Amino acid sequence: MSEQDDKDATRLVQAGRRPEWTQGIVNPPVWRASTILYDNIAEMRARGSADTHHKLYYGRRGTPTQWSLADALTELEPGAEATLLYPSGVAAITTALLAVLSPGDEVLLPDSSYEPTRAFGNGMLKRMGITATYYDPLIGGGIAGLCGERTKAIFLESPGSLTFEVQDVPAIVAVAKARGITTLLDNTWAGPLFFPAIAQGVDYTILSCSKYVVGHSDVMMGSVTAGPGQYERLRAATYQLGMCASPDDAYLAARGLRTMEVRLRQSGASGLKIAQWLRTRPEVARVLHPALPDCPGHDLFLRDFRGACGLFSFVLHGGDDAARTALIDGLRHFGIGFSWGGYESLAIPADPQRIRTAGRWQAEGPLVRLYVGLEDPDDLIADLEAGLARFAAARG
Ligand SMILES: *Cc1c(COP(=O)(O)O)cnc(C)c1O
Questions:
Q1: What residues of the chain score a pLDDT lower than 50?
Q2: Contact 182 CB / ligand 1 (< 6 Å)
Q3: Of 41, 52, 187, 296, which cross-links 57 as Cys (Cβ 3.0–4.6 Å)?
C-alpha cells in the first residue's frame, strides 16, 4: 500500500507534516520572517544561487509554515509537481494566467466564470493585449472549433459559478493537449478530494482556500498546484509579482485542512438533502445541483466526480427581485454574505443574465445561491420552508 492508496481522511491528517521541521510538534508552528540571517557571505551566496525550494532564504519565499501547507495540497493531487500559495483565490487565478499568457495571446474562458476572473480577462489581460474569448461551459470537445493560432490557454471552472454547469474536463484537456494549449481549472467547488484535477490531465489546478480548506470564514488564501513540468513558469511569475501568503494565515489554513474531509462530507450530505427537498417544492422551478438531474452536465458529474460539496443554486417559479428578497431577508439560519465553505450557511441572490456573453441565461424566475454549512439540515429546511411561504405571498 502506498500513500496514494490511503483514504481521503487519512491523507488529510498526514499530508505535509514533516517532523524535521517541527521537532515533533503536531501542527507546524507559525514561523514569521522577513530577514533570515546567514553565517557568512559564502552561505548567503550559496542559498541565493541554488534552488531555494524548502530553504530559508527570505520571508517572501516562505518558511516551513507555508511549505507544509503547500506540500499537503500537492500530496492531495496525485501526479502534481508542486503548489504555491497566494493571498486570495483571485490572486492565485490572476498569477496563474499571467504565468502562461503573453501579449498577442488568446485565452478561452467559460461563460460561467467566477465574476472577478471575468473582470481580469476584460480588464488587465485586455490592457496587456491578451484576448479573452468566452465559451459555452457545456461546449466539451467542440472547443476545438474555437482554438486558433493565438489560443495559448483554456481556463475551466467546473461546475460554473452561480449556475453549476459541469464541464467535460477530459474532452477539453484532450483538445488542449493535442494543440499544445495550457489548461487551468478553478477547482474550488470540488477540490482535490472530489475532483483530482492533475490526474485528469489539467496543467494547473486552482483553489480558493478561503472556502473549505480554511473552513471557518476567517482567512483569505489561494493556491495553484502545477502538473508535471508546469511548476517553473508558475514559480517565476509568482516571485516576479511578489506573491506570498502570511505564515499566520497558512497556519490557520493548515489547521482547517485537517478536518476538511469530515466537514465537506457533512456539508455535502446536508446540501444534497436540502436540494432534494427543494426539488419537491412548487415554488421552485429547478435546482442547480450537479448531483441532481436538472443540472446541466449532471451525467458528467456522475462520470467524473467523487462527491458534491454544499454549494448550489435554485431557480424560483416566477416572482421578482422583491419576492426573492422577502425569502432571503427573513431567513434565521442562513447569513447573507459572500464566500462559502465555512461552518455556517449562507444565501445570496444572483443574476447570471447580467454578465453572460457567449449565451443567454434564461430562467423561470430569480435565482438564489445557497451554501449549506454544518447546522442540522432539518432546521435549515424549516427556515427555507418559511422563506418559500414569504416568497409565495410576495409573488402573489
Ligand atoms: C471565492 C471564489 C474564488 C475567489 O477566491 P477568494 O479567495 O475569495 O479570492 C474563485 N473561484 C471561485 C469558484 C470561488 O468561489
A1: 1
A2: no
A3: 52
